[in-house]
Amino acid sequence: MVRRVLRAGLGGDTVKGALTRPNDALPDLFHDPMPDRVEPCLALLASKVPAGPDWAYEVKWDGYRLAVHVELGANVRVVTRGGHDWTHRFPSIVAGAKRLGVDTAILDGEAVVLDEMGRADFGALQRALGGRGGKRNAGEAMLYAFDLLYLDGHDLRRMEQVERRALLSHLLSGLGGPIRFSEDIAATGAELLDTACEMGLEGIIAKSRRAPYRSGRGGEWLKIKCVQSESFVIIGYEPSTVALGGIGRLALAARKGDGLVYVGGVGTGFTQASATALRNQMDSLATPKPAVSMQGRRQTYRWIAPALVAEIAFRAWTDDGKLRHASFKGLREEADEAAVYEIPA
Q1: Which Gene3D superfamilies does this one have (predicted)?
Q2: Which CATH class, in words, describes the domain spanning 228-336?
């Protein structure tokens, strides 16, 4: 019934009515309990852009994945990918959610801070939050919403992606402010990827228009990147008397089987503030031995317990399994549940 109602009114008054008068417009639909949390649908990394009319394309936003729960209109919760309550850390998004004019809803999206070119800046977002484990709030953050999972008593996850997106578009139409609709881009996937790379963006997301919303990494959503970006464990650093924050280079590791393996280092991408804060955190985790085998490596490194996870941008892998042209983007929060890159055993 939900699908039939939406197909009859996509882009018309039926969809708008379902948003503004849900109880009148959809009187024969049963009420679905509102889930306390929804495990997010995750994008599977792909090397090529899928083509054809069954795929829609969006910009890949570089920030923190969030679910925004609106409960009884004025009560708003902001939940991270890892299930942590970060409502207090995104006051602007909370304020925007209270203006939606719905009784209940769950929006899926990405919190970002934009740079002067209008690009999502992960480092700026982290600085706004006070760094990893910081206590500040990101008042300047906005949410690019790309899916609608629940609306006024109805669980929308079983509906097709194109239908959920139509409802979300109408919900956000004309509102402006800190919650914005992540638009489909009217171009072929290959054209959009080329443009995104030219603009210095991270990449694009391709989504199956007819797929329901499924938690996990099932392939209905694909991510195609301009520059690779993954999470790695910091296992040590090389001190420097001239580099920012005294960090000459970080030593990084990825998961392999039940352990960790060294994948190279990174010495760029820091600011004075981020490097100084990172140095202080690393010094508090000092340990006499590295967490992985470092035979033949320089002994000038200071080793730390493998407790910090860094987001690293890089161009490629070398033939011996090391990162090439790597750059530090920031530390990942435990609440963001960023998975450490895993090398096949």
Answers
A1: 3.30.1490.70, DNA ligase/mRNA capping enzyme, Nucleic acid-binding proteins
A2: mainly beta
Sequence-ordered alpha helix ranges (H) in 36-121: 91-97
Task: Return the ∠ at Cα 301 (arms to 296 and 302), rounded to 5°.
Answer: 135
60 is catalytic: yes
Domain with CATH 2.40.50.140 in the chain: 228-336
pLDDT score of 73: 64
Query: If residue 247 lies in a helix (H) or strand (E), which one and from where to where?
Result: strand 247-256
Q: Where in the chain is the domain with CATH 3.30.470.30?
A: 2-40+63-183
SS3 282: helix
Asked whether residue 283 carries a pLDDT value surpassing 60, the answer given is: yes
DSSP state of 152: T
pLDDT at 338 over 70: no
Could you read off the pLDDT of 286-333 as tens digits, one per residue? 999 899 988 666 678 899 999 999 999 887 788 888 998 899 998 887
Burial of 306-336, coded b for 16+ CB within 10 Å and e otherwise, reads bebbbbbbbeeeeeeeebeebbbbbbbbebb
- String of DSSP letters for 224-244: EESSEEEEEEEEEEEE-SSSG
Q: Average the pLDDT over each of 17-26, 225-234, 336-345 and give the range with the smallest value.
A: 17-26
Copy the structure tokens of residue 25: 């417009």
CA-closest candidate to residue 68, choices 194, 176, 168, 184: 168
> Residue 294 and residue 330: Cα distance in Å, rounded?
24
Q: What is the pLDDT of residue 5?
A: 29
Q: Which of 16, 60, 207, 225 is catalytic?
A: 60
Return the pLDDT at 234. Answer: 96
